[in-house]
Amino acid sequence: MMPLQWAIVFFPWAGALALAAVPNLRHATLGNIAVSTGTFLLAVALAMQPFGQQGWTHTDALNLPFVLVTGFVGLTTAVFSAATLDQEGFDHWRIRAYHAAYQIFMGAQLLALLADNLGVMWVAIEIATLATVSMVAVHRTPAAFEAAWKFFILCGVGIALALFGTIVLYLAAQPLLNAETGLSWVALMEVAARCEPATLSLAFAFLLLGYGTKAGLVPLHSWLPDAHAEGPVPISAVLSGLLLNAAMLAVLRAKAIVGANPDAVTPGPFLLALGLASVLLASLALWRRGDARRFFAWSSIEHMGIAAFAFGLGGPAANLAGLLHLIGHSLVKSAVFFGVGRAAQVKGSQKIADIGGLVATHPALGWGLAIAIAAIAGMPPFLLFASEFRLFTAAAEIPWLALPLAIGMVVALAALVTVLQALCFGPPTPDAAGALDGWREAAAAAPLWLHLAVAAALGIAMPAGLAAMLMAAARVAG
Amino acid sequence: MRFGQITYDLSHLLGGAVLLLSFVLLYQRRIGAVINAFAMQGTLLALAAAWAAHAQGVRGLYLTALLAFVVKGVLIPLALHRLVRQLNLHRTVETALGVGPSMIAGVALVGLSILAVLPATEAVSALTRENLAFALSVVLLGMLMMITRRNAISQVIGLLSLENGLILAAVGVAGMPLVVELSTMALVLMVAIVAGVFAFQIRERFDTLDTGSLEEHRGERR
Q: 0.90 cut: is pTM over it?
């Protein structure tokens, strides 16, 4: 039997093949849910197993929590997608392409997380990018093409630079490793301290630029807002909630290797600088957005910046804050996109000015979105509050760094509150579309509330097993 | 391996020729000539990969060489020529930065990559590190071309030539694991981007392949 670590990658890919043959909307969406449920169950089963290496993949404390999050968000997004996909107006070719691309993306995302071999991880991130580009372009409007083209070209350059960095990294470790293990992250971590430091530094520069582009760190972010705003709604949720995590973990793994060598360049300050730049630019950019989905895409840039800042500080406490932040952001941001996406469908426009008073007219959606925006702004009791609190505790020793971060986050918070009031409370705007029939309206709102419940539960009382795993992960990341 | 041995000399000659073609790409003023220069670069890259396969005794690299020749030396240039003819595009290359300044910037980038690579790789064999300096120069020149050309096809060719630099780097590192798989996947990415040019039918939508006009469809200006 195929090892579980491989099965969880190949199962969605097999599902993609099957779904490509289903032209019927209802059958395809149900099939998509079935495949995603299977993937989620495999992720849970994988989490039950002890850590281990299996060919080019491995499980450790660092990737397992993210595999679980990926399985979970993949499943809830499939449910949301099933409830609302008819609003996108796809013909049967696009239904096939959309579901196949969705599952190809899920498999590649899981492979990127599980890969031990840095070459395999690179290939996985590339496949995930190709799958998402095709989904961003699926509406075939000029704006969608522009978004997809920008996404393609900028991430193409980013991915190319990451490959160059991978080659240089191998060059640094070549005298110490044989060809079999030359790109294994575990093996590289063991020998990192004895590698040629200058070569390692050069490799880090390229890996940071390459994967940093995919993670949307300023100044490499400009593809991100358009890509999140133009694709079908569920794609924004998985782009923001999942793909950014895979890229950020790639950056973190590169940082861990270089950080293990005392003579190489110290990677922390680079991440701190990119992270702080992301938070500050995003906090200002948030004030200038008129488009709701672009607004929350910019908020993703801000949160990736916060996570990069935490990883840049380094040390177990800050790393733990960063990992919690990534997980919390995945859960809450995809919830926000479910809410905003559904609201945009109801109002027939994704401009902030056209969406108003949701609480009065659509209470389940409106309150859910309001709470989700409060959660993404870092309000207790959600996980993002816990992670930001931990981050400031860790950063308090260096006030000249913590202060600009705090200013950026407060400015962003104010922008979020303004938009929260406009979208959910202000005077109601007219609806363009009627309500969905019966169960589908509930199925469109359920993922949002479920994500909020999980994020709140993790923020208040994280299960001991998961907490211990994340502590271990924070130490692995160095 | 050192200077004066045929392995060393020939792989340097080929690597240098690939770099030279990057400069040729920079000073072309007609889109057809840019495509031809790119085809030439792809062919030279194939030769460099084939020579690396022979010198390192890695048979898989012959596959890389073959793919590079067929796809980048023949198929992509043919497809791009066809696209230019079909859409009756402006045949001249629109530059954001003149040819003279681009060449000077290119020379500066080559200097930069030598200064970045050579001191950083003192432990590696001379052949590998000098090859890596060539490769990084090709990568940087590809980026320069993407920045200084306003035309979508030239930008794609800049990215394709950037990827040529990556393959040059990958085949130059003896013993690199998965080198064939990685270079093939990099090629797949590039083919997908070329396919994107066709699929997105930028001309049909925007009446020009000039990416400047795409800006109007950016985000919030609708």
A: yes
